[in-house]
Task: inverse folding
C-alpha cells in the first residue's frame, strides 16, 4: 500500500465548526434588499449592515415591468408573471440564507400603472412583508445617498436612469440637494417615442429644458447610476482596452463620452464592438440611454462622467446606519475586513501602520490626507496573498485588490493599492505587472506605491507577519540615511536579507542605510 487510507477526520477539522462559513465575517446578520424596478427585479443579499457592504448574493430577472406602461397605463400580464415568479424564487433563496432583515421597494412602473396596486398586493403576499412604493423624490434622494456611500466627498449631480424614469439630484460631500424625477427611463422613452430615436430626441430635449439640476452640473462631476449606463461604460472600457474591468469609479472626460454615445445612437447595437459584454435584454435600450446621456452632457457640460455601481439599494443601507458608522471611511472598513479574513495575524496590521506612519513622518514627504488613508489601507491589505504559491503572491494580490468590490476610491487609488502590495511581495521591479495599470497613476502616486512596498518588504521580514515585534523596533530617515533600530534581544532578526532590503529602501530616497543595535 503506497499511501495510507484517508482519515475520516482529517487533522484540524475537529478544531472547526464544519457548518460555519469561515470565509465570512462573524459580525452582524445578513440583510437583503429586493428592488422591483421598471426593467429588472433584483435581490441583493449583503453580508451585514456596514459602511462597506459586501454582496454575498446578487440576482436579477429582466421582467420589463415598465414596458408599455406609458402607452397602455398598465403593467403587461407577461411582465407581471415574470416579476412575481422572480419574487417567489427570491423568497426561497433569502429564507435558505436565514435572512430575516429584508426590505422590498418598488419604483416607477408600479408607481404609474393603474394595476400597480393589484401587483403590489400580490407581491406583498409572496414576499410576506410590506413593499415600499417609493416616490420619484425619494428615489432621487436614495440614489444620492448611494453615491455618497460610494465616493469620498462627491461633488456634482447624480443621474439615476432606470427603465421608467430618470432621477437627477445634487450631492456635495454628505449633503443632498433637491431632486427631480422625469419619465425618461429607457423603456418609458422607447414607449413614448414609438421606437423612433428622432422622436425620442425631441422628448428628451423638452424634458431636460431648464431643469436646475442640469444647469448645476457645469464644471462638476456627473455620477451615472443605472444598468443601461453601466452597460455603455462596459462597452467603452472594452473598446478603449482599459486595464480594469471594474465599473465603480470609472471616470471618462466629457468629450470622450460625447463622441462615444453619439456613435452608439447611430449604429445598430448588435454590431458594436464587444457587444457580447452586454446582455441581450439591455441592448435595445442602449441607444435611448446614450441619447439621454448625450443631451445631459450637452446641456450640463460636466467636467467628467463617473460611473457609480452604488445607487438606491446602497442608499437604503446607508440610511439605516447609525451616525457614527455612517461617518466611517468605507475603504478602510473594507480593508479591515480583508485583514481579518485573509491575514495570518490581523493584529499585526496595527503594528505595521504605526511603524509606517512614523517612517513616512520622518521622511517629511508632502503627503495629503487622502494619500495617508490610502497608505493605511495598503498596510491592512499587505498580507492577503500569503496562501498563494510564493512565485505568484504579488500577482494574485494585485489582481484581488485591483478588482475587489471596494468603494470610496477612484481607479488611480485602486491601482496604487494593488501595486504597493505587489511590490511588497514581488520586489521593486515592474516585471509581471500591467503597464496599462501603471498608466492610471500619476508619477507621484507610483513613486509612493514603490516606496511603501519597500518599507513593507523590510517590516514583514523583521516581524514574520506576527504582532508584538515591530513596536520594539524603529525605522526612520534622516537627511542622509535610513536607520533601522533594533534592541539587542532582537539583534539576530537584522539579517543580511533585512540589510539588503533596507539598502533598497534607502536607495529610493537617495540615502545610505544603517542598522543600530540598542541595549
Result:
Amino acid at each position: 500500500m503506497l499511501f495510507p487510507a484517508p482519515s475520516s477526520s482529517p487533522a484540524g477539522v475537529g478544531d472547526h465548526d464544519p457548518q460555519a462559513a469561515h470565509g465570512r465575517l462573524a459580525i452582524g446578520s445578513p440583510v437583503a434588499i429586493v428592488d422591483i424596478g421598471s426593467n429588472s427585479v433584483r435581490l441583493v443579499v449583503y453580508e451585514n449592515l456596514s459602511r462597506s457592504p459586501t454582496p454575498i448574493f446578487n440576482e436579477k430577472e429582466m421582467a420589463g415591468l415598465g414596458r408599455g406602461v406609458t402607452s397602455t397605463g398598465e403593467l403587461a400580464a407577461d411582465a407581471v408573471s415574470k416579476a412575481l415568479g422572480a419574487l417567489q424564487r427570491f423568497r426561497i433563496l433569502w429564507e435558505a440564507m436565514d435572512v430575516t432583515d429584508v426590505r422590498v421597494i418598488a419604483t416607477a412602473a408600479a408607481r404609474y400603472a393603474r394595476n400597480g396596486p393589484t401587483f403590489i398586493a400580490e407581491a406583498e403576499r409572496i414576499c410576506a412583508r410590506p413593499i415600499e412604493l417609493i416616490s420619484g423624490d425619494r428615489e432621487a434622494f436614495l440614489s444620492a445617498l448611494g453615491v455618497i456611500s460610494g465616493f469620498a466627498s462627491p461633488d456634482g449631480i447624480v443621474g439615476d436612469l432606470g427603465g421608467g424614469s430618470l432621477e437627477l439630484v445634487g450631492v456635495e460631500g454628505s449633503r443632498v440637494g433637491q431632486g427631480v424625477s422625469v419619465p425618461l427611463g429607457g423603456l418609458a422613452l422607447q414607449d413614448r417615442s414609438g421606437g423612433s430615436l428622432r422622436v425620442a430626441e425631441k422628448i428628451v430635449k423638452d424634458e431636460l429644458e431648464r431643469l436646475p439640476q442640469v444647469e448645476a452640473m457645469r464644471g462638476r462631476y456627473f455620477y451615472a447610476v443605472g444598468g443601461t449606463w453601466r452597460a455603455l461604460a462596459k462597452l467603452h472600457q472594452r473598446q478603449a482596452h482599459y486595464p480594469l474591468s471594474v465599473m465603480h469609479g470609472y471616470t471618462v472626460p466629457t468629450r470622450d463620452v460625447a463622441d462615444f454615445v453619439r456613435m452608439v445612437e447611430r449604429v445598430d447595437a448588435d454590431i458594436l464592438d464587444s457587444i457580447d459584454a452586454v446582455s441581450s435584454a439591455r441592448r435595445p435600450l442602449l441607444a435611448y440611454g446614450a441619447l439621454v446621456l448625450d443631451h445631459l452632457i450637452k446641456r450640463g457640460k460636466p467636467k467628467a462622467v463617473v460611473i457609480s455601481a452604488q445607487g438606491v439599494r446602497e442608499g437604503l443601507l446607508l440610511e439605516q446606519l447609525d451616525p457614527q458608522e455612517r461617518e466611517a471611511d468605507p475603504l478602510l472598513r473594507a480593508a479591515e475586513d480583508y485583514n481579518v479574513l485573509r491575514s495570518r495575524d490581523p493584529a499585526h496590521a496595527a503594528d505595521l501602520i504605526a511603524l509606517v506612519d512614523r517612517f513616512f513622518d520622518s521622511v517629511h514627504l508632502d503627503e495629503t490626507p487622502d494619500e495617508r488613508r490610502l497608505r493605511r489601507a495598503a498596510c491592512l491589505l499587505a498580507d492577503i496573498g500569503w496562501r498563494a504559491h510564493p512565485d505568484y503572491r504579488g500577482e494574485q494580490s494585485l489582481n484581488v485588490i485591483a478588482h475587489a468590490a471596494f468603494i470610496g476610491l477612484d481607479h488611480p487609488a485602486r491601482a496604487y493599492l494593488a501595486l504597493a502590495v505587489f511590490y511588497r511581495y514581488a520586489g521593486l521591479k515592474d516585471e509581471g505587472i500591467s503597464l496599462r495599470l501603471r498608466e492610471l497613476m500619476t508619477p507621484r502616486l507610483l513613486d509612493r506605491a514603490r516606496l511603501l512596498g519597500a518599507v513593507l518588504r523590510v517590516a514583514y521580514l523583521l516581524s514574520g507577519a506576527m504582532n508584538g515585534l515591530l513596536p520594539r523596533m524603529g525605522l526612520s530617515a534622516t537627511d542622509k540615511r535610513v536607520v533601522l533600530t533594533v534592541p539587542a534581544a532582537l539583534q539576530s532578526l537584522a539579517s543580511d536579507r533585512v540589510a539588503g532590503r533596507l539598502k533598497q529602501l534607502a536607495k529610493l530616497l537617495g540615502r545610505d542605510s544603517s542598522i543600530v543595535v540598542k541595549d
User: Anything to note?
Assistant: Confidence is low (pLDDT under 50) at residues 1-14. The CA atoms of residues 454 and 505 lie 5 Å apart.
